[in-house]
TrEMBL record:
It is a single-pass membrane protein. The gene is SMIM22. It comes from the Eukaryota. PANTHER family: CLCA DOMAIN-CONTAINING PROTEIN, SMALL INTEGRAL MEMBRANE PROTEIN 22. Residues 67-86 are annotated as: Disordered. Keywords: Membrane, Transmembrane, Transmembrane helix. This is Small integral membrane protein 22 isoform X2. GO terms for biological process: regulation of cell population proliferation. Its main location: membrane. Residues 67-76 have a biased composition (Basic residues). The chain crosses the membrane at residues 35-64.
């Protein structure tokens, strides 16, 4: 029971601190806070960009593969190893 009460008090204290920062309109207290937030936004933007590129690639690949089939463009590469023939 004591553990649950301590956790509840800690969460209430944290919530009051966050609400206090929101009321004062000063979310970032130092330059490190601002830099960490910018790095997080850059990371999030990069992930979203990569997801967008994957979606575009999948859509364009399915459209392009309908027009030209891979079996029509099959080219032989290399040389035949005649030593393996019986």
């Amino acid at each position: 029971m004591a553990l649950a009460e301590d956790l509840e008090k800690e969460l209430e204290t944290t919530a009051q601190e966050v609400l206090g920062k929101l009321r004062s309109r000063q979310l970032f207290q130092s330059r490190w806070d601002t830099a960490a937030f910018i790095i997080f936004l850059i990371f999030l933007g990069t992930v979203l960009l990569l997801l967008l590129l994957v979606c575009i690639h999948c859509c364009c690949y399915s459209c392009c593969s309908r027009r030209t089939s891979r079996s029509q463009k099959e080219h032989r590469r290399g040389v035949d190893n005649l030593a393996l023939e019986p």
